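Format notes (please read before filing issues)

Several people have asked whether sequences and C-alpha cells are stored in separate files. They are not. Every record keeps both together, in the order shown below: the sequence lines, then the C-alpha cell lines. Line labels are part of the format and must not be stripped during preprocessing.
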Amino acid sequence: MLIIEDDDIIRRGIVKIVSKMDLPITTIEEASNGLEALEKIRQMVPDLIITDIMMPFLDGLKLLKQIREWELPSRTIIISGFDQFSYAQEAIAYGVGAYLLKPVKKDKLYQVLHKFIQGLTKESTHHKTASDGSQFGHDVGFITRYLEEHYAEDIDLNKAASLVFMNSTYFSSLFKKMTGVSFIHYLQKIRVEESKKLLSNHQLKIYEVAVKVGFSDEKYFFRVFKNTTGLTPNEFRLLKTK
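Then the structure lines:
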C-alpha cells in the first residue's frame, strides 16, 4: 500500500489507523507529494493507493491520470477536504475506487479497504488459474510505454527488467517473444525516430541531438542511425532540407 498526503500529521495518522486494522496489509509506504508518489508507484506498483487531491508538484487527479495511462492494476482511494462533485466526477473518470472526505472515518475506510482486498484476492486466484500470458503482456506493455516516455534517460535491460520485477535474462527473452525484436533494438528504434524530429532543427548540432535522445556516444549514435535508416544523421538532415 502507498499513502500519499502532504500533511505529515494526517499522513502518519492514516498510516497508524490502517496498520491497526485487521487486514492483510503487510507493507505501507508513504509519499508527501505527487512526484515522490509517482516514482514510488513506478518502482513498487502498489495494490492499494490512498491519495490526497491537493498536493505540491503534482496533484492527486494528475497522479490518477498517469496511473490510468500506465494501465496499472492499483486500486485507488481519494481523500479530500473538497466536497465538490467536479472533483469526484474527474476522479471516477480516472478509475478511482472510492472518494472519502476529510477527516477520514475509520469505519468507512475499513469498509472500502476490506472490499478492495476481497476484490484483489479474487483477481489473484483468477490470475493463478489463468494463462500467464496476459500478465507477461501487461509487463512488456508497461515497459514499451515507459521507453516511449523515458527513452532519453540512462535506461538499459537490467533497469527495465527490475521495473517489472523480472530476471534480466528471462525478461529479454520474453520481450523479444512479445515484440518480435530485442529490447535494445526496440529502444534504439524509438531513439532514432525521436532524433529524426530533432534533426529538422538546424540549430542543434548532431552530438546535441544524440544526447537529447539518450546516446552518450556520438559515434555510436551515427552507427545506430545508419543501421536503422540507411543514412547518416547528416545525410538524413540534408535530404530533409531539399
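For reference, the curators noted about this record: Residues 10 and 120 are 26 Å apart (CA to CA). The chain has a mean pLDDT of 86.
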